[in-house]
Amino acid sequence: MLKIEGFSLSRENEKFMLINEMLIGSSMRVNIFGNNDTGRSLLLRSIHGDYFDYGGQIMIKDKSALFYKKKKKTILINNTSHLLVNESVWKNIIIPLPKITARQKQKIMELCVLAKLGDKIGLKVKTLSSSSKKFIELIRAVIQLPQIILVDDLENYFDDKNMITALEICNFALNSGTSVIATSKKKLDNFDVNYRIQDSKMVKL
Question: What does the buried/exposed string (b/e) look like for 24-51 if buried means 16 or more CB atoms within 10 Å of the residue's CB?
Fold first, then answer.
């Protein structure tokens, strides 16, 4: 599904992350970890088609990531909130869905209950905690079933208990072929593959 080859990430004309080859298939949970300022966030933005200062190839389903510039196959969740804080939990989740099926309604409710949002579905987002807001973004992402969900700094949003819940929510999309790529400062448990960024190179563990 995702192939990165001969990749060199740059910033102000200086190369600072190299990836010889990275292959990620469907339904995979991938963790990329490393210290601050190693390029984790910029790598996800590059895959998402939101950062272009790099060399090499990023291919999604055998086409360049740039091919999907207008109709993206990825969803990026990062430190910036992408919620309408004066709208309800429900409204924020269904915004990108052109038409909601009965199955989607049922699944959204199941995921909200899992995230302890079942009794908050009608509340305005601004009244909720930071982790609840990220759960809303995650549920909205998985219900769209993109090719890849990209989550930057995953451990910033959830404690250990909520991290398990977040991965359970991701299972809905994983079961339909979506892959999840999450970055972090340290290695995370319960991922299929872990990559470490060290000495400007990404290494598969």
Answer: beeebbbbbbbeeebbbbbbbbbbbbbb
Sheet holding 179-184, edge to edge: 63-64, 54-60, 2-11, 14-24, 201-204, 193-198, 29-33, 179-184, 148-151, 74-77
Residues 6 or more apart in contact with residue 30 via CB below 8 angstroms: 24, 179, 180, 181, 182, 191, 192, 193, 194, 195
- Measure the CA–CA gap between 153 and 188, rounded to whole angstroms: 11
Its pTM stands at 0.94
Q: How far is CA 14 from CA 44, 51, 55, in A?
A: 18, 15, 12
Determine phi and psi for 67, rounding to 5 degrees: -60, -30
| Candidate CATH numbers 3.40.190.100, 1.10.3720.10, 3.40.50.300, 3.60.20.10; the one for domain 2-204 | 3.40.50.300
So what's the pLDDT on residue 154? 96
Q: How far apart are CA 124 and CA 112, in angstroms?
A: 14
Q: What is the pLDDT of residue 64?
A: 74
Mean pLDDT of the chain: 93
